[in-house]
Design a protein that fits this description.
- The chain has about 350 residues and is mainly α.
- The protein folds into two domains: about 1-205, Orthogonal Bundle (Farnesyl Diphosphate Synthase), CATH 1.10.600; about 210-340, Farnesyl Diphosphate Synthase (Orthogonal Bundle).
- The chain has helices at about 5-30, 35-45, 50-65, 75-95, 105-115, 115-140, 150-170, 175-200, 205-230, 235-240, 245, 255-260, 265-275, 280-295, 295-315, 320-335; strands at about 100, 105.
- It has a two-stranded antiparallel sheet.
- The two termini are about 25 Å apart.
């Protein structure tokens, strides 16, 4: 594979750094105090993150345009990271999460700066709105082929719509967990970035279709892996306590599978822990063990393996450039086998 994922990450980080400097100067001319929200967005965005969406986008680009300028994907990649920051800022406030990427959540940063919970939350909402605006500004600057720009804008807007709808279903604890994940995670983690990259490369309808069929199972596989890590991941690697998703009462694929397959007594144990505001470490450990002993974990892992195999099969028969196919295969492995 000619390009490494690390090179993609370096390019998008450089693009983001330059953009934030531009915004600092612009807001300074408006008001010295206006820079506070820019700094909040910039600090969160540059704090870290796996940059999986830019990697997926670039893989989609290379799959249809193997010899194109690598820099062509940087603006849309940066837009995706800013859209991610927007979602994270608001999601952390909705979930009352105080940490993100090894540091304080944005609403906590702003609350500490002003000594007022309500003001901190209000400013955080504005910071999220600002990040969203930045994302769409960068999207409009992206070097799409002229005839593909409307499709690129439509794909980005559709991705935004699906994630918001997915978050709504998540907050409402909608019973269709697969639909929630399809909208909230698969849309802007896999399918959307792949499509945007392909449009930057002026993809044919057949290539767009192949990437859509590849992205669908890959997006689901990403979420299943996320759910498995949220319950069984090593805290030393994930940075989250053992059984984190159970502790938070999250409606994961594991929970849906448990509800569908456990007996009445075990389902009651499950719901008791999920509904408990502060379940004990012992309760979490016992429930985690139950998910293993009952075969729930094994069945979800088998679903994950099946999705990976399906995505790999799509790639094998797709009319995509070999260079891009190699990146997509590496992306598939990274998404399905990650440990955090």
């Amino acid at each position: 594979m000619g390009e490494s994922f690390e090179q993609v990450v370096q390019r998008v980080n450089a693009h983001l750094a330059a953009y934030f400097q531009e915004k600092r100067l612009e807001t300074q001319r408006l008001s010295p105090r206006a820079g506070e929200l820019v700094e909040a967005v910039a600090e969160l965005t540059m704090r870290g993150g796996k940059r999986l969406r830019p990697i997926a986008l670039h893989a989609g680009y290379r799959a249809v345009c193997p010899s194109g300028d690598a820099e062509r994907t940087s603006a849309v990649s940066a837009a995706l990271e800013l859209l991610q920051s927007y979602f994270l800022i608001q999601d952390d406030w909705m979930d009352s999460d105080e940490e993100r990427r090894g540091g304080p959540a944005v609403h906590i940063v702003l609350t500490r700066a002003h000594g007022d919970d309500k003001l901190g939350a209000s400013l955080a909402i504005l910071a999220g709105d600002l990040a969203a605006g930045f994302a769409f500004e960068l999207l409009h600057r992206a070097p799409f082929p002229a005839a593909r720009l409307p499709e690129g804008l439509a794909a980005f807007s559709r991705m935004h719509l699906e994630v918001v709808c997915g978050q709504q279903l998540d907050l409402l604890e909608h019973e269709d967990v697969a639909l929630t994940h399809h909208l909230k995670t698969g849309s802007y983690t896999v399918r959307g970035p792949l499509r945007l990259g392909a449009l930057l490369g002026d993809a044919t309808p057949a290539q767009l279709d192949a990437l859509e069929r590849f992205g669908e199972p890959l997006g689901l596989a990403f979420q299943l892996r996320d759910d498995l890590l949220g319950t069984f991941g090593d805290p030393r690697i994930t940075g989250k306590p053992a059984g984190h998703d159970l502790r938070e009462g999250k409606q994961t694929v594991l929970v849906a599978e448990a509800r569908a397959s456990l007996g009445a007594a075990d389902r009651e144990r499950l719901e008791r822990v999920l509904d408990h505001a502060e379940p004990s470490p012992r309760e979490i450990a016992e429930l985690t063990d139950l998910l293993v002993q009952s075969g729930v974990r094994a069945r979800v892992e088998a679903k994950l393996d099946g999705l990976v195999a399906h995505a790999s099969q799509v790639l094998a028969g797709a009319a995509l450039a070999p260079e891009g196919t190699q990146m997509l295969e590496a992306l598939l492995a990274r998404f399905a086998q990650r440990d955090k």
